[in-house]
Amino acid sequence: MRRTVVKANQHRRYVYNNINIDYISGDFDVVIIGCGIAGIYAALHIDPDKKVALVNKGELNSGSSYYAQGGIAAVISKSDSYSLHIEDTLNAGAGLCDEEAVRVLVSEGPENIRALVDLNVPFDVNSEGELLITREGGHRQRRVVHCGGDATGKETTNRLWEIAKERGNIKFMFGTSLADIILNDNGEAAGVILKDNKSRFILDCANIILATGGIGQVYNYTTNPKGSVGDGISAAYRAGAVIESMEMVQFHPTTLLPHYETDRLFLISEAVRGEGGILRNRHSAAFMQGVHEMADLAPRDIVTRAIYRELLRTGDSCVFIDAGNMSGEFFAERFPTIYSECLKFNINVPVDFIPVRPAQHYHMGGIKTDLYGRTNIPGLYACGETASTGIHGANRLASNSVLECLVFGKRCADYINADFNKGTGVVRPQTGGLLNRTLDAYQIKGFSAEIKNIMTLYAGAIRKIDGLLYALERIGRIIDFLEGCDIYNHEEAELYNMAFTAKMVVESALDRKDNIGAHYVEE
Fold this sequence. Notes:
The protein is α/β, with parallel strands linked by helices. The chain contains 14 helices and 19 strands. The chain has three domains: 243 residues, FAD/NAD(P)-binding domain (3-Layer(bba) Sandwich), CATH 3.50.50.60; 104 residues, Alpha-Beta Complex (Flavocytochrome C3, Chain A, domain 1), CATH 3.90.700; 71 residues, Up-down Bundle (Methane Monooxygenase Hydroxylase, Chain G, domain 1), CATH 1.20.58.
């Protein structure tokens, strides 16, 4: 079964059409864009004699990794096996997985968990010091390790950050956004154009890793943090990287309903259902029974569509998670973050049901890479959510995402260490002159809101062909307008990237003719 591939870029080469560079630095051997788990873990595995720049558009806690609740899936228990984990991943991926990549992920998972243990990442353990493991949707075995109950991303990111800031070869650049990737005359990576709040500058570097996260903020409702609009994917697209499977957008079935007016929705981890929580409608009916053999622990795309159909049938705004099988003491200890967040809204779990509904959560597509994170552009690598390794296929299996960050972040670093490219010196980008049209704050806000509305209405978990065609036409008009604008600042660049990310999702959805996994077109 084929993966969709985005057509080559026919638009401007650089987001800033007229690039006035304040300075050029050749101080770094490796540049990593993104300070989530994938980016930091890759940095920690670069040889210490190489200077690394870790670039992040926000602060440390601004990425999706920081908010990951559930945990990390890996074969830990004696009752589990590689073959079972592989089979569960392939089943969730609905026939679109790269089986070789899945085998690499699963087989190298346990050693990376052991590496985190050796780095003193504070995993939850039992009284005998053994790792506690839980189960999530799509998994037939308990194989998900976790930290702080439901704070795995926060605890892991913080610990890796503590280690990285002690490394003399790693420099952090917070508040700095990626504009574009520079290539030399041979089509190889030669550097990046970056922008902070003071200047626009180039890092001359022939080894670049993109770990820029997801695309959730092109939708109205997402668990992704502000700024997740596909910057890395769009920059790679402009540079000529192969982009694939953009239509494969995963919607998490259960986000907390009171958060629906915020930028980033609060996730109710799948692990709540893994511990026995049951989805119910307002009449307390367990509506997942009979929908799938795994009922409440079916793959996410199936649960999400089942919830949407239940809401359409009943006219309700949400369904509920019933955690009544757990004691209050157990729930508060196992899910302290969820417990405290629910209490803010006077939801006393497990006595009260938790009101939930689906929202965009993860993106399976992105920059096509091989088993070492290499793109089709020599010297350019990608890992984590921004990459398309083929592991997740049409639907990501729960808690395989952080595992992918570890396994393929390390693989990017290992390849660079073994085949380090010294580069040929800085290449100045050749761009056009100033354009006549400018954007104001009102237009930026208006276009952003329009893209989010279009994507939410027409490119969500359930799609229709006429809706996708309308979305493509409307987004195309926005892009046509932006193409005539001179882009100066971060907000304008983010809007430009957002528009192209949305366009790639919609075009890929129209290109795919079969319903599979997260891509579902209703007649």
